[in-house]
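seq as requested:
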Amino acid sequence: MKFFGSGRARLGAMLAAVLLAGGVGMAFAASGSSSMPPSNAMAKGRGINEFGMTKAFFKGHVTSFTYSRGYWCDKSVRSTASSKCEAGAKWKKAPSKQHDPLYITVPLGFDVKPMSMECPNGLVCVDHPGTIDLRRLEPALKPLYPTLTKKQLLAVLRNAATPGHQHFITDRNGGKPEWWDVRVVGVTSPAEYQRISHHKSAHYLLKQVKAGKTTPVIPTNLFLYFGVK
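struct tokens:
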């Protein structure tokens, strides 16, 4: 797992907070339950086509996304989530030649008022997946759960609820809809989270990533389709 580098233990702690914030922590106690988070899928790796909007940050301003297609997850990257989406490994095949990065910030280890996030915990945003496979993070997470066997932890990570998040983009693509490559950034400090949200800028976000104020950028096999107003 070269992805974690020397910060493996630190990043593992951050991602563990994601699991708790996203409701996966409760799955430990409810591992015998047959209930699963909704995937929002119409087929393997393909989301239900819906039409709707969310907000996003771009160059210090708030802008709007208009969605018209369900999510797309690269099925050549193995995933055990019901959505077939995965975090921790980059896609191998993209749904189009042209796409831009979409950075999402996830608050880790602290609470954020649900409606202060565009996509809160427990609410599947329009054309987003409801589940995601986090098994590739198991080696980093295992030391944090010494009472769980590897098998038990993997059972939790294989179909986790997608955590709440905010959106950041680096360009508008001329207002034309396109596929966007989803990349995750975890934020562990409430003060840092507020600073990033206040700046409303992907440039500032990536500056903080480079400075080690957040987790490294976490790749996924997930794409979302929308146009920017």
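The two ends are 38 Å apart (CA to CA).
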